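Lecture 7 notes: from sequence to structure.

We start with a single chain of 342 residues. Read the sequence below before looking at the structure.
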Amino acid sequence: MIIVMQVGATDEQVQNVAQLIRDNGYEPLVLPGEGRVAIGIPASLSNEMRTDMEVRISAMEGVSKVTQTSHPYKLASREYHKSNMVIDVKGYKIGGDEFAVMGGPCSVESYEQFLASAQAIKASGAKILRGGAFKPRTSPYSFQGLALEGLKIMKQVADETGLLTITEVMSGDMVTTVAEYTDILQIGARSMQNFPLLIEAGKSGKPVFLKRGPSATIDEFLLAAEYVLNAGNPNVMLCERGIIAFDRAYTRNTLDLSAVPVLKEASHLPVIVDPSHGTGVAKYVTPMALAAMVAGADGVMVEMHPNPKEALSDGSQALTTEVFSKLMDELRRLSPFVGRNV
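Now the structure, written as tokens:
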């Protein structure tokens, strides 16, 4: 249940409603919004209690309406925040008219490799450079990233090129360190339900890029975002990166593009698509990136590498610099038809 207060409702009126909820044994969730306040009540209310409280609260001063919500998430819901969330990252806005493109290698392998990637990204017109300093791999024998050295390389290259950066953080105790070196914190698919990590990422105040788990439902995905939001951080981006494939002979995952309009309807948070992990095959990345734009996504995250054949991780899904540049050109040609800028 969500109580929507009137525009201009006083703090006293908000607290009176909150106290009534507490008097009935529940802890209210006060949700400051644009011009008005909403108050959430846990979904565990019995039908009888819900009806009784709806009648009593509707009659209180400062209350505009009481609505029922069928969703377990609140802060991530459009019932709480009607307009699209636009996230400002050092002046670059994600979730508005701009179609954001995040590009770069799976892993930071060396200063030279990462600088070459950044220069190609910048030359193509993209604004955000991706790269992994910490790499969670299925096999413990696979390349795990350069860790702190990788973060330092990323920061140096970002300072030299002027690009924004995004990289993955894998544990709550590393949030402060990773946040020191990058502009956007990525929560990987394997970490989507690492709740201590989500809470620490929320506390950091840094924009958070949350990837959908490979077998996560939409509700589970949005509830993961709820942890970050509930920790006081409204700057959350959702990333559809593919779910477990039925037929893995052709693609690494099944890229669930239907999740884009579903998420846009259910939530106000920006939605980004990762066609690289979504397919795992470089030749499918461009058509899926274009399809993501048409589906209503707010951007894409694409892996590219100066020499994919020599990549230490995920070379099979990485675009060459030339193909990445062509992708940017195709996105620009398509963007006027969907009301976006690239």
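The chain has two domains: 2-67, 87-338. Keep this in mind for problem set 3.
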